[in-house]
């Protein structure tokens, strides 16, 4: 009874909280465009293009005509180790299944026009690509935290890292060869190839050596370097954008 009453109360509170936002969407200046519902068979581009955004040392996406791009980068190691999450026995299979389905559905929504429209609240995205990418990143990091806490029990770390590395490198190559955007040329993925190569070497050592703690410290140090390099480039872009925006406003005044 308590569960039923609490659930109904929570749903009611959520509904009343969402009503003003729903009304605002109906009076949005983009309403006429949002009434056009895309087909479930409409895609923005190659399904691997979005995965290539999981790469270090690239500028953050502000706006782009290719709408399947997504701000999902949160460190290579989180993606490379993701397959290990689905082998953690202490986590219920139903939970692992739900996490996997959620990540898959969100990833498809970056590229599928109908899912993208639904995930944006029955709204076509404008300017900011994939506003809901933060939920995808959050779930990746939650899974990564479980992997780290259970790492010593994994017996097949190297195969898992190898599979995810191969998929990621394939996405880099396809995007670099097919994309027309300057930020997606093949040379922009060189840092990604380098970091992935070093990670693979370190995990080979992790699997081969008895002293795993030293190798884990090296992996941790490499992760810090990777994130610092990527953060510096993103902050550099933000600084340039802020300066140019300020100058343009002063000139307009």
Judged by helices, strands and strand pairing, the structural class is mainly alpha
Cα Rg: 21 Å
State the low-pLDDT regions, or none: 249-253
Number of strands: 0
Mean pLDDT: 82
Order of helices and strands: HHHHHHHHH
Strand content: under 5%
Total helical elements: 9
The termini sit apart by 63 Å
**Structural shape:** globular
- Chain oligomer state: single chain
The helical percent reads: 55-70%
Q: Tell me about the biggest sheet?
A: none
Structure described in brief:
By secondary structure, this protein is mainly alpha-helical.
Keywords:
single chain; 253 residues; mainly alpha; 9 helices; 63% helix; globular; disordered C terminus
Structure, explained:
- The chain is an all-alpha fold and 253 residues long.
- The chain contains 9 helices and no strands.
- The protein has helices at 2-26, 31-34, 76-80, 93-111, 113-119, 133-149, 157-178, 190-208, 212-252.
Topology (elements, then pairings):
Elements: H1 2-26, H2 31-34, H3 76-80, H4 93-111, H5 113-119, H6 133-149, H7 157-178, H8 190-208, H9 212-252
